[in-house]
Amino acid sequence: MPGTIIFKPIEAKFNDNPANIDKVDPFCKFKIGFHSGSSIAARPIEGNVKWSDYVTVPRKHDETYATFKVKDSGILGLGKTLGEGKVDLELVLANKKIVQWFDIYDKDEVSGQVLLEVEYWPPM
């Protein structure tokens, strides 16, 4: 079902080296089919990563999932991927809105979790 998916990254927890999280500027990149969008970079404070924006991505066809990456936008990170995951769009369409923690993976191992609010808006 076509429409718009709104992704609101809320916060993140990383498994590896949480003491060094203050040295990264993570942002989220969301992709559905060929369409994508990115959040602004978060500024970790005392080991907590929190965002305050949202990303809209059109769903043009019947894609069943969205992918997302958490990347470091900092100069030292040079776009390094901190983890990536998937969102089941069928679940989002069935409920219109979900808020849940999603595991993110780096090299097939869980590297952390991201709390996302994901909402479906049908076409007008």
Can you give me a brief rundown of this structure?
This protein is mainly β and 124 residues long. Helices cover 6% and strands 56% of the residues.
Outline the structure in words.
With 124 residues, the protein is mainly beta. It has a single domain, classed as C2 domain (Immunoglobulin-like, Sandwich). It is built from 1 helix and 9 strands. The strands form 2 sheets. Strands 1, 4, 5, 8 and 9 form a 5-stranded antiparallel beta sheet that branches. A hairpin with a 2-residue loop joins strand 2 and strand 3. The radius of gyration is 14 Å and the shape is elongated. The model has no long low-confidence stretch (mean pLDDT 89).
Low-confidence stretches: none
Average pLDDT level: 89
Number of domains: 1
β content, as a range?
over 45%
User: Over all CA atoms, what is the radius of gyration?
Assistant: 14 Å
Helix fraction by DSSP (H/I, runs of at least 4): under 10%
Can you tell me the CATH superfamily? Answer: C2 domain
Fill in the CATH topology: Immunoglobulin-like
Class per helix and strand makeup: mainly beta
Instruction: Just give the CATH class.
Output: Mainly Beta
> Largest sheet at a glance?
5 strands, antiparallel
* Count of alpha and pi helical runs: 1
Shape: elongated
The assigned CATH architecture is Sandwich
Based on DSSP secondary structure assignment, what is the total number of beta strands?
A: 9
Distance between the termini: 13 Å
- SSE string, helices as H and strands as E: EEEEEEEHEE
